Amino acid sequence: EPNGNEPQVSGNMGLRVGFVGAGQMAEALCRGFDAAGVAKCVDMTIIDRNQPRRDLFASWGCKIGASNEEVVKNVDVVFISVKPYAVADLLREMAPFLGPNVLVVSIAAGVTLATMEDAAGAGVPIMRVMPNTPCLVGCLAGAMSKGTSCTPEHVDTTARLLGAVGKCHEVPESKMDAVTGVSGSGPAYIYQVIEAMADGGVLAGLPRSVAQDLAARTVMGAAKMVLETGKHPGELKDAVTSPGGTTIAAVHHLEKCGVRAAFQGAVKAAADRAHELSKS
C-alpha cells in the first residue's frame, strides 16, 4: 500500500531520507545532508546487501531497513543509488509501496525518466539527477530533471538537498547527455590536465610532489576565480597574459596544439556516447 504519510517535501528541515544502495555516492550525500542540517542521519534509512556498508551507515545513526518497503514507508525522499542496469527492476519491485507522497530521486547515469516512470507506475514523483564524483568532497557539479508527476516543491527539495554537497542545475532531460559531457565525465579531463601540468613541472625541474600540488591548486584557484568573480574566463586569462610575457607564450603553444578544439571534441564525444548508451 502506498506511503500514506503526509508529504514533507515542501520544506528543507526535518526531511526523512532513504537510500536504496549505500555506495560511495550515497555515503557522500548522507554525510553532506547531515553536516548541512537539511536531513540528519537519525532521520535516514538505508538498505544495502553489503554488511560493512550497513555497519558504516549505522555507526552514524542511520536506520537500517530490512526491506525496500520498510525504507519507502519511513521516508519522504528516497534516493535510488544502485547500478543503472538494476534501476527499472528495482522500481517495479518497489511500485506497490510508492505513491505521490514519496519523492524518488535517481542518481543512476543514463536511466531515463520514461523508463523509471513506467517501472514505478503512475503518479510517482521522480527526479533524475546526474551527479559527478567531486560530490565525494562536497564539490558536486550536477544537474537534475523533473518527471511528469513532480511539482515545483519536489524540484526545490531536490535542489536544497543536493545543495548540501555542491551545485545542481535544473535542465530539461533532453540536455542530460550534454551535462554528462561537461560535468559527469569532466573530472577525468581535468585530472589529465593536472597530471600533464605536473609532468611539465617535473620536466622543468620541480619535484613531482611539488609540481602536482601546484598544478592541482592552480586548477582549484582558477575555478574559484571564475565562480566568485563572475568574470568570463577569457577576461581572467587576459588579465595574466602581459605583452611578450611567459603566459602568452604558453597560451600560444596551447593554441598551436589545438587544446580548445580537443576539449570541445571531448565534451561532444562523451555527450554522444551518453546518448547512445541511453538508447541501448
In short:
The protein is α/β, with parallel strands linked by helices. It has helices at residues 24-36, 51-59, 68-73, 87-94, 113-120, 152-162, 176-184, 186-203, 208-229, 233-239, 246-256, 259-279; strands at 17-20, 44-47, 63-64, 77-80, 103-106, 126-130, 140-146, 166-170.
Describe this structure in words.
This protein starts with 16 loop residues before the first strand and ends with a helix. It has an eight-stranded mixed beta sheet with strand order 3-2-1-4-5-6-7-8, sandwiched between helices. The protein is elongated, with a radius of gyration of 21 Å. It has twelve helices and eight strands. With 280 residues, the chain is of the alpha/beta class. Mean pLDDT is 93; it is low at 1-12.
Question: H/E order of the elements?
Answer: EHEHEHEHEHEEHEHHHHHH
Low-confidence stretches: 1-12
In terms of DSSP E residues, the strand content is: 5-15%
Largest sheet: 8 strands, mixed
Estimate the global geometry from the Cα principal axes: elongated
**Count of helical segments?**
12
Order of strands across the main sheet = 3-2-1-4-5-6-7-8
Structural class label: alpha/beta
Q: What oligomeric state do these chains adopt?
A: single chain
Helix content: 40-55%
Radius of gyration: 21 Å
Task: Compute the separation of the termini in Å.
Answer: 33 Å
The whole-number mean of residue pLDDT values reads 93
Topology:
Elements: E1 17-20, H1 24-36, E2 44-47, H2 51-59, E3 63-64, H3 68-73, E4 77-80, H4 87-94, E5 103-106, H5 113-120, E6 126-130, E7 140-146, H6 152-162, E8 166-170, H7 176-184, H8 186-203, H9 208-229, H10 233-239, H11 246-256, H12 259-279
Parallel strand pairs: 1-2, 1-4, 2-3, 4-5, 5-6, 7-8
Antiparallel strand pairs: 6-7
